[in-house]
Amino acid sequence: MTTSCSSEVAALAARAREAATVLAGAHRSAKDAALLRMADALTGRTREIETANAADVAAARAAGIPAAIVDRLSLDGARVAAMAAGLRQAAALPDPVGEVVRGSTLANGLELRQVRVPFGVVAIVYEARPNVTADAAGLCLKSGNAVLLRGSSSAARSNAAIVAVLRDAVAAAGLPPDAVQLVDASSRDSVRDLMTARGLVDVLIPRGGADLIRSVVEGSTVPVIETGVGNCHLYVDADADLPTALSILLNAKTSRPSVCNAVESLLVHERVAGDFLSTALPALRAAGVTVHGSPEVVLAGKTAGVDVVEATDEDHAAEYLSLDLSARTVSSLDEAVAHIRRFGTGHSETIVTSSQPAARAFTSAVDAAVVLVNASSRFVDGGEFGFGAEIGISTQKLHARGPMGLAELTSTKYVVTGEGQVR
Amino acid sequence: MTTSCSSEVAALAARAREAATVLAGAHRSAKDAALLRMADALTGRTREIETANAADVAAARAAGIPAAIVDRLSLDGARVAAMAAGLRQAAALPDPVGEVVRGSTLANGLELRQVRVPFGVVAIVYEARPNVTADAAGLCLKSGNAVLLRGSSSAARSNAAIVAVLRDAVAAAGLPPDAVQLVDASSRDSVRDLMTARGLVDVLIPRGGADLIRSVVEGSTVPVIETGVGNCHLYVDADADLPTALSILLNAKTSRPSVCNAVESLLVHERVAGDFLSTALPALRAAGVTVHGSPEVVLAGKTAGVDVVEATDEDHAAEYLSLDLSARTVSSLDEAVAHIRRFGTGHSETIVTSSQPAARAFTSAVDAAVVLVNASSRFVDGGEFGFGAEIGISTQKLHARGPMGLAELTSTKYVVTGEGQVR
Description:
Two copies of one chain form a homodimer. By secondary structure, chain A is an alpha/beta fold. Helix content of chain A is 45%, strand content 20%. Chain A has helices spanning 7-25, 28-44, 46-62, 67-73, 77-92, 130-142, 156-172, 189-195, 210-219, 242-254, 270-286, 295-304, 313-317, 333-343, 356-365; strands spanning 100-105, 111-118, 121-125, 146-150, 180-182, 203-206, 232-236, 263-269, 290-293, 309-310, 324-330, 348-352, 370-375, 392-394, 402-404, 410-421. In chain A, β9, α12 and β10 form a beta-alpha-beta unit. In chain A, α5 (77-92) runs parallel beside α6 (130-142) and α6 runs parallel beside α7. The mean pLDDT of chain A is 95. At the A-B interface, α1, β2, α9, α10 and α15 of A face α1, β2, α9, α10 and α15 of B.
């Protein structure tokens, strides 16, 4: 069931398949040795990477790209060292490949084992963060997959330098350098080609903004793992401890507003709305947050002497990724759940409550990758969850849901061993 | 990320979503009670189902539909009783929903649990086997999913009768009848509508022939689980016990040639080809099998006095689903693996060997849902694997691979419980 795609992507994918075949059979020791060499090479050749990156950064500045994006694009010695540290960390993690997930001996004596195996060829499409290049290469190699990396054109020189360094290290470690390949980022065609490389690419993972993810998910014939759009809610229940609710709200909204696990929307039970908003609205203002509220919240703002912008449905649906917050009151937990069902993106949803029945009702009724009780949604992260690494946060229900570590970069294979059994 | 689709499918899906919300919170006892009522209703209203089925069968005969397909379409008391037995069996299986797949307490005291949850709304597109209607409804209900059933137009009356019976039983058991809904099968549009019902349908499972599966997989924007195309190989190694190889070959080829786990292609190491083929070719002929062979196999046929048709690449790629078999010799295990890599569909691949290194090399190198050593591929089946039920055999790598039971009809949700932790 292979679909034709451009000869360039097809050629890269064919080389990746050859490399993947070798990687699938590589022992952990060989993969870890390659990861350590990759780490050493990044630190040893930092100058080379910085030079390439400086050219990307200069071009981005000249093109008027916003400062926040230029910052994410920029590399220095510390950032390259962090990439190397990530590779060393991947080397220290257990090998997911070969894990026996399930096993039994059947009544007829057949021995059944379900074993983790690599996907084969993984493609990742991402935006202007060159550190993703090393992170994704490391996690894919550790999990026995060859990777096709399609970064942003604005990071093309940086990514080319990083990939050249990584490929040399992989080759020096005796593994096929085509385990790590860069896809031409100069046109959108290469994304389209990856999306339609059915049979050549086993899994495609888009990482980046909502538009990128939507276009990949909707247009792809290759299996996709959808990641990371988060319109995350915090619901302050009638039985919430209000200081706890405020502490979690401020952390989840302001500690890093640009990430997908930041809270974008506040729901407050009407029974505690007056009390809670009278302290929360000034605290949010002090933290630089603009609140987009329902009429009740606007009124509470007036009482508290805080300007609240009137919220529209667009606000309730927004993943701001900024110091903005939509807010409304609800008359019940059920109304909060219904609001989340309507506007949520299935990422991370939080309840603050001291009521065990309310916590149980919320965690049961809310359909999301992660549901939190009395904790900040900022913890929704593969590293925080103890996975040691993260390739992204899946917001789909198929295959993987929530933070994805190494195991989520694998498939399984059943191995059945008999002594001549027939049916 | 909801895509528009026709109002009919959208309306069914919206009702399914409401039902799914109730089912997701239903206790096992309630679901099992509904399954037992569904079973009783099928046996109690067999006459009604037979009458509807007789009309479908008559129309199919009048339309000149092949006898084998008419046979699969036909229901009698015994077949309806078997459907009811399947529902009772589903009731007896453990509930996959709520299983804690993974759990830990993090260093900061957060309690992390990964819990199985239903997908929500599952759509199944299938061909003219009315028994699938009851089987799929039962497995979806047990796993907490609402199901949209899109069967064949030739089974429309049978399916309508079965679904009416099942819905009455679900309602009588106090669960929402919209947990089981039939999609209009009179036009291809309804398949297209299901394929594009993104956000309305959580998972789409095509069951049937290769053409149906390909068109669904390639055209769908809803997540798909690809099932069941099997060009399955049997490799007779240089170190094979030849009587065992012959026994497995005959069983895997002839016990039920029309199913996806039947062997379609024979690979024989050249060192044992003379010996093996001299007995295998006459035995295959005696069993009514037509062999499509490489020149060496044609020659062996001449020696054995058995006609062998010359094989083309189309033969090596074919999923015959009939008493046909492609065959060739190989000079090594590696050549067998390379042949399987080229022509296999990733379903089930078998080696017969007494050599442990050969078994290990084959199971490691072959990339398929199931790899068998010294056993018939006819065992590749959810029932045989001890899953108690099967919704299909996945040949994709994402989410599920190989026979799919109840657990494969679920997703997971992380539940994180804290006491006010912030990051």
